[in-house]
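Please predict the structure of the following assembly.
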Amino acid sequence: MVNGFSNISRQTPLPRSFYNQSTLLLAQALLGKYLYRRWRNSFLVGKIVETEAYIGEDDPACHAARGKTNRNAVMYGPPGFAYIYFIYGMYYCLNVVAEAKGFPAAVLIRALEPLDGIEQMMTFRKNRIVQNLTNGPGKLCQAFHLNRKQNGTNLCGEEVFITNGEAIVSTHIASSKRIGIKVGMDHQWRFFMKDNSFVSRA
DNA sequence: ACGCTGATGAAG
DNA sequence: TTCATCAGCGTT
């Protein structure tokens, strides 16, 4: 144990092929996976426990609903890259680009269960309550120090990546309407772990 | 329930 | 250039 980090050996980043699949399947497949963020030769690590799918130009809630712009360009690129955008004047949200190049879709990472580097997360969040570090999309970006500099980052690289994590039983996954949007409410495209206390809301 | 905060993109 | 909007959070 050095500087609050344990010395667990990290797993191998998931390959690009993992991200090249249906956004709805990817959103569920990401549950239980581990998000790694390199920080000063150590890693901040969290288990993904809540996601949302945003799928193509026909999804009115998707940032690509009005076509390609500078802001959403990463979503139109190849899968397995980070789409990070600034929202509400003060927060960032982390998305994982899904599906083949040219089709704009992504999975929003909405909540994590902190696993390693918790002291560093507390510093970034200015909050010492573990429960309150990563239970929301803006919060987890603050805890993992993710911002516009990481927009477009290759998730098969060294700085930010996702590993196999833990196997999840499908019966432990629940779905609901997506949170914080006013359109596209006809879909249940939010997925989360039942009974995990780090999910952003019940 | 509301204020904070600023990038975004559509309208003019 | 102006303006409403916004995939959130913390405090009331």
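Chain A is about 15% helix and 30% strand. Residues 52, 54, 61-63, 85, 87-91, 93, 95, 108, 110, 136-139, 178-182, 200 of chain A lie near DNA strand C (CB under 10 Å from a C1').
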